[in-house]
Amino acid sequence: MKLALLSSLLITSASAFAPVTPSRSCATARYMAEEATAVAEAVAEETAEEVAVVEEPVAPVPAGPQKVPCFGATPFYTKEPVFFGENYWDKITMEWGTADTGKFVQAAELKHGRAAMLGTVGFAFHKLGFTFNNISPHEYLSVTQGIKFADLQAMTPAEAVLKVPGEGYAQVFGIIACIELYELTFSGGKFKGGERVAPGLQAGGLTGDLGWNPLKVKITDDRRLAELQNARLAMVVISAWLANDAIPGSVPLPFPW
């Protein structure tokens, strides 16, 4: 009996100093935890890199019927600008088209206004005598057809326009076509040749902004407003001048010529 008790005590004491081997489940759990931590750190690094290079999201182009402000609406000037009705193009953008229709109409208005300003300057130069026969050594508009600048000066501007030969109009329309093609195929000053639809034909693609600013003038809303208001005035003036030349007395306002 004593021998049995002594043997059991020795075995118990020896087992107390024996190394304990971790179970397979404990090792697997620790490995999985370490692996999950490493994966989380890698994902966090990749996400940080993506955030660093991601560009700011582009504002979505509004689609469907929407109230679009009429930029540059001319008020009746009092102490505070007063408008009659709402300053929006509801009919065009809500019933006849979408918000993109409003952008197209704004671009068309700006282009027509710029053409009218050029026409007004040319009309005034003709009326005041600043024609090429007076300010240029060239005598002929067309040597082959015998048309002189002095001959055009003796006519009204509307009559002089009809005397310009077809080759002259071909040059004018060729220049206009180059400008229009530039706006149709370029966006942000870069050529977009890989797109199925030309940038200018996409929704909201035509804006009238050709990116031509050689003097690096800072474009502000005040400058845009001044250009648009002068353009609207020029459209009214050139229409009145042409009507008065075509039908004398058709404009009930006295003209200086």
Task: Name some characteristics of this structure.
disordered N terminus, 9 helices, two-stranded antiparallel ribbon, 4 strands, 257 residues, 4% strand, mainly alpha
Query: Percent range for helical residues?
Result: 55-70%
* Sequence of secondary-structure elements: HHHHHEEHHHEEH
Largest sheet: 2 strands, antiparallel
Overall spatial form? extended
Q: Give the strand order, joined by hyphens, for the main sheet.
A: 1-2
Low-confidence stretches: 1-27
| Mean pLDDT reading | 74
Radius of gyration: 39 Å
- The tally of helices reads 9
Distance between the termini: 144 Å
Counted beta strands: 4
Description of the structure:
The chain has 257 residues and is mainly α. Helix content is 56%, strand content 4%. It has nine helices and four strands. The chain has helices at residues 2-16, 24-53, 90-95, 99-128, 132-135, 149-153, 157-163, 166-185, 221-246; strands at residues 140-142, 147-148, 186-187, 190-191. Strands 1-2 form a two-stranded antiparallel ribbon. Helix 4 (99-128) crosses helix 9 (221-246). It is extended, with a radius of gyration of 39 Å. Residues 1-27 have low confidence and may be disordered.
